[in-house]
Specification:
Largest sheet: 6 strands, mixed
Shape: elongated
Oligomer: single chain
Strand order of the largest sheet: 1-6-5-4-2-3
Strand content: 25-35%
């Protein structure tokens, strides 16, 4: 019984860790020389966030780009920056109490146990940031972050800031030598 309880607690911990981990991806044009770009300007988002989130997202990205030495301008930029976001339901089914047939259970002999399935629904948000060369209109860099959306606004703001910080950690990409 003790082994069973330990296994369930460990499984629950691993499941919760995986459910709340941010997933970050970046890709860029390997031929681009990012040292040639000094200014940027926002392009209208095709899927802007609702409410206060549009300003929060743009402000967090502005902070990262400016920390990297880029200057935000109102005309004639070197780079265009645009983001889009999506929110969808993520369903997960978890089975517990697996039995392996007659007279077998977890660590003891006895009648088979019945498997119980629980379905959990969480909201997943994905933010995609594109940076393009304003002169030739070619995509130079794309980053996306996916995370679980909470009912707690402060937690979501913290998750947004962490995700954008991770997205721009290695921006601009370094030249391979």
């Amino acid at each position: 019984m003790k082994k069973r309880t330990t296994a369930v607690v460990l499984f629950s911990f691993l499941l919760s860790t995986a459910a709340f981990a941010q997933k970050i991806n970046t890709d860029w044009d390997r031929q681009a020389n990012f040292s040639n770009f000094h200014t940027y300007m926002w392009e209208q988002s095709p899927h802007p966030a609702k409410g206060f989130w549009n300003d929060r997202i743009m402000s967090a990205i502005d902070q990262q780009l400016q920390a990297k030495g880029l200057t935000k301008v109102v005309s004639n930029p070197d780079l265009w920056v645009v983001y889009s976001n999506s929110i969808h339901d993520q369903k997960e089914t978890v089975g517990t109490n697996y039995g392996f047939g007659p007279y077998w259970g977890w660590g003891y002999w006895g009648p088979p146990t019945q498997t119980v399935y629980n379905t959990y629904v969480t909201k997943q948000g994905t933010l995609v940031v594109d940076i393009a060369d304003a002169k030739n209109k070619q995509l130079l860099w794309r980053g996306d972050a996916t995370d679980t959306i909470s009912d707690n606004s402060n937690k979501n703001i913290n998750n947004l800031n962490k995700a954008i910080e991770k997205l721009f950690k290695n921006f601009p990409p370094k030249e391979k030598k």
